[in-house]
Design goal:
The protein has two domains: 143 residues, no CATH class; 55 residues. The chain is 35% helix and 21% strand. The strands form two sheets. It has a four-stranded antiparallel sheet with strand order 3-1-2-4. Helix 4 packs antiparallel against helix 5. The radius of gyration is 32 Å and the shape is elongated. The relative contact order is 0.18. Keywords: Membrane, Transmembrane, Transmembrane helix.
Length: 224
């Protein structure tokens, strides 16, 4: 699998943190937590995400909603680090977060994202038909007739007050009736939510991870 080139400085920093065996599984999953939906990128040597989340006995495996990929690689840890480094500023709680009031405190909280950062949750990007209501213009011809009646009434007022009042009153009624004849029309349009954009080398990495097969055991959602 082709991976983005890491700088010498990045490789140097990783060297101190790299596990003795960087082989394992890199995964991306959606979690349903009491605080809302989150997306998690991670690395594990466990055989499934359920096993990984169940480790420690906190019941975190019950948070699993959907697994988008769970891919075995010889350099899975490095791949995970590449993704996390690129997406670091989008983390939900910060790189070193350990907030006990938020999900996975001390158990991978820094790997959480508040949105579908990899753009793999297809349901979010399906075309949606949106209907809006718009007010149409009122009858301009009828309004014009009303204005004309008011004008004639004013012109005739010095000569025949009663007759002019008839024109003024009738013109006002025409104008008011016209403005009340606004109709409401439905306007339908198809909208699509844009997917997150990444540099080409990162997008190629994401695509290659998501195209690989996911073990059925890793996809299974654990019921409470």
């Amino acid at each position: 699998m082709a991976k983005p080139h890491a700088s010498l400085y990045t490789r140097f920093k990783r060297w101190f943190r790299r596990p003795s065996n960087s082989a394992g599984n890199v995964y991306y999953a959606r979690l349903t937590t009491p605080q809302g939906l989150f997306y998690k990128i991670g690395f594990t040597t466990k055989a499934s995400l359920v096993d990984r989340m169940a480790y420690g006995g906190h019941g975190d495996e019950k948070l699993i909603d959907k697994v988008f990929f769970f891919t075995q690689l010889e350099d899975a840890w490095d791949v995970e680090q590449t993704l996390l480094d690129h997406l670091s500023k989008h983390r939900a709680f910060g790189k070193y977060s350990n907030n006990p009031s938020q999900p996975l405190g001390g158990r991978g909280q820094s790997e959480l994202f508040a949105s579908d950062i990899l753009g793999l949750d297809a349901a979010l990007y399906a075309p949606q038909e949106v209907t809006t209501l718009e007010a149409c213009e009122y009858d301009s011809d009828q309004a014009a007739d009303g204005c004309l009646g008011i004008f004639l009434g004013i012109v005739l007022a010095p000569f025949t007050l009663g007759f002019s009042l008839f024109f003024i009153f009738g013109g006002l009624m025409e104008f008011i009736a016209a403005t009340k004849k606004r109709t409401v029309a439905e306007k339908k349009e198809i909208v699509r939510r844009p997917r997150p954009k990444h540099p080409e080398e990162i997008q190629v990495l994401i695509d290659s991870l998501s195209e690989l097969n996911i073990p059925a055991s890793a996809q299974e959602k654990t019921e409470a």
